[in-house]
């Protein structure tokens, strides 16, 4: 009789272990997915602001076609990269960030543009969106780190392997200089 109770206790503990490990991994995976969707929301907001910003700049800097085309192409690539993984999307977004820095540097050469209320409003909104993107990236990467750690550590690694929990990619920020590029005429 005592042996049966011990066996039942071991079985119940094993079941509880699997349930808690599985639920913990699912909870963290869902947090990663939610964090990724927040990045997507902020990136979409940035993508939606860019055409208005470009139209405002076009009126003042019509001969700066190359910069405007670079921003437009970078935005198009960033929108298309939304279906790719975090690494590809991060790369496309980094190119877009660089193109936007060039656009803002260009505005320094046009005092009338810098004084334009529509441009200033769009620039402020885009800057605010960039801050939100940075926060969303940080939250996503923190969530990925917790999730990856959970599914790679013992004993959860056993459950993660059984139920195909896979490692997630980090959303890597641009490496290198954050200086504003110089625009020369």
Q: Strand-and-helix sequence, N→C?
A: HHHHHH
| Main pleated-sheet profile | none
Number of strands: 0
Quote the average pLDDT: 84
- Strand percent estimate: under 5%
What overall form do the CA principal axes indicate? rod-shaped
Give the fraction of residues assigned to helices: over 70%
- Termini, distance in Å? 91 Å
DSSP summary: helix tally: 6
Class based on secondary structure composition and strand pairing: mainly alpha
Low-confidence blocks of residues: 176-185
Task: Tell me the radius of gyration.
Answer: 24 Å
Describe the protein in words.
The protein is rod-shaped. The chain has 6 helices and no strands. The chain has a domain at 50-173. Residues 176-185 have low confidence and may be disordered. With 185 residues, the protein is mainly alpha-helical.
Topology record:
Elements: H1 2-60, H2 65-80, H3 86-107, H4 111-115, H5 117-152, H6 156-162
Helix pairs in contact: 1-2, 1-5, 2-3
Summarize this structure as a short list of keywords or feature phrases.
single chain; mainly alpha; disordered C terminus
Summarize the structure.
The protein is mostly helical and 185 residues long. 78% of the residues lie in helices and 0% in strands.
């Amino acid at each position: 009789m005592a042996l049966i109770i011990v066996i039942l206790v071991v079985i119940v503990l094993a079941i509880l272990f699997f349930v808690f490990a599985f639920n913990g991994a699912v909870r963290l995976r869902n947090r990663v997915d939610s964090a990724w969707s927040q990045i997507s929301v902020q990136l979409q907001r940035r993508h939606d602001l860019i055409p208005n910003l470009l139209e405002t700049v076009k009126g003042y800097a019509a001969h700066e076609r190359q910069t405007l085309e670079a921003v437009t192409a970078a935005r198009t690539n960033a929108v298309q990269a939304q279906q790719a993984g975090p690494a590809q999307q991060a790369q496309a977004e980094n190119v877009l960030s660089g193109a936007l820095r060039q656009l803002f540097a260009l505005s320094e050469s046009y005092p009338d543009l810098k004084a334009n209320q529509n441009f200033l409003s769009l620039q402020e909104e885009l800057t605010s969106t960039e801050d939100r993107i940075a926060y969303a990236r940080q939250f996503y990467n923190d969530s990925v780190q917790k999730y990856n750690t959970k599914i790679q550590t013992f004993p959860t690694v056993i459950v993660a392997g059984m139920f195909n929990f896979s490692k997630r990619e980090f959303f890597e920020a641009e490496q290198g200089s954050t200086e504003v590029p110089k625009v020369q005429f």
